[in-house]
TrEMBL record:
Residues 1-29 form the signal peptide. Residues 41-261 form the Solute-binding protein family 3/N-terminal domain. InterPro entries: Iontro_rcpt_C, Solute-binding_3/MltF_N, TAT_signal. Keywords: Signal. PANTHER family: AMINO-ACID-BINDING PROTEIN YXEM-RELATED, MEMBRANE-BOUND LYTIC MUREIN TRANSGLYCOSYLASE F. The keyword Signal applies. This is Deoxyfructosyl-amino acid transporter periplasmic binding protein. One of its GO terms (molecular function) is ligand-gated monoatomic ion channel activity. Residues 41-261 form the Ionotropic glutamate receptor C-terminal domain. It comes from Mesorhizobium alhagi CCNWXJ12-2. The lineage of its organism: Bacteria, Pseudomonadati, Pseudomonadota, Alphaproteobacteria, Hyphomicrobiales. One of its GO terms (cellular component) is membrane.
Length: 271
């Protein structure tokens, strides 16, 4: 009789433990619907020297178009600015860091390409523009003129991809960030630097001897937020929040703040 009761208690305890495990798993899924590293915080990988997209201000804070837009999107998902962390690093490390689970998302004007989508997933596009060559030599204004020249590119960017395919007779010199490349340009180590239009505009304003010599449209690879492959819940939530920001005019306001005078694609504006 005692043994039978013990067996009954043991079976009941085991069943209760299984029930807790199943219930706990369900509760955990409900508490972390976006599969974040920390359910209470969104961890964002970004850059720190790509003004006006993203950069570190005089107070040491990461700011710019991408962080401001992402903070608005995150708020629509229920995360205020105190529950979003930005970490700057080299561009080439951003997508691998998301794929490996170091960050929940990357936001740094990262162009969407089929090759990149093999390793990570992208939100809907939120930015499109031009790629630009800057140089002190205004004669470097064509593909032919760049032949035999040393052209700086940021490793892992659309510019590197485009230059590798297009400037096949040009000596490409890879850098971790724009500041290092422009420093090399100013000291004569390279002849020109290939970056995005908005960053190029900032550098030619800062250094009077530099000029934009080539502009290349890049509307076929719009920037998107990068998330870990298969995290559809997070990606779809970002898409929904992005659409809301575009339809209520928030995207337009932020774009006008950081890119005054720059044309805006009609698909990103309120209908």
């Amino acid at each position: 009789m005692i043994n039978a009761n013990r067996r009954t208690v043991t079976r009941w305890a085991a069943a209760f433990a299984i029930g807790l495990a199943v219930g706990g798993g369900s509760a955990e899924a409900q508490d972390n619907p976006y599969n974040l590293i920390d359910p209470t915080m969104i961890s964002v990988g970004t850059m720190s020297d790509a003004k006006p997209y993203v950069f570190t201000d005089e107070n040491g804070n990461i700011t710019g178009f991408d962080p401001e837009l992402f903070l608005d999107v995150a708020q629509r998902l229920g995360f205020d600015k105190d529950h979003v962390t930005f970490t700057g690093q080299d561009f080439a490390a951003l997508m691998p860091s998301v794929a490996n689970g170091r960050f929940d998302v990357a936001a740094a004007a990262i162009g969407t390409t089929d090759e990149r989508k093999k390793n990570v997933d992208f939100s809907d596009g939120y930015l499109a523009g031009y790629l630009s060559v800057i140089s002190a030599d205004d004669k470097l204004s064509s593909d032919d003129a760049l032949k035999g020249k040393r052209l700086g590119v940021i490793q892992g960017t659309l510019q590197e991809i485009y230059a590798t395919k297009t400037y096949t007779s040009t000596d490409l010199v890879k850098f971790p960030d724009n500041n290092a490349a422009v420093a090399a340009l100013n000291n004569g180590t390279i002849d020109a630097h290939f970056t995005d239009y908005e960053s190029a505009k900032q550098y030619v304003e800062r250094y009077s001897e530099l000029k934009i010599t080539i502009n290349v449209p890049s509307f076929d690879a719009p920037a998107g937020f990068v998330v870990k492959k298969g995290n559809d819940a997070f990606r779809e939530a970002l898409n929904k929040a992005l659409a809301q920001a575009m339809q209520d005019g928030t995207w337009k306001r932020i774009h006008e703040k950081w890119f005054p005078g720059t044309p805006m694609p009609a698909e990103y504006l309120p209908k």
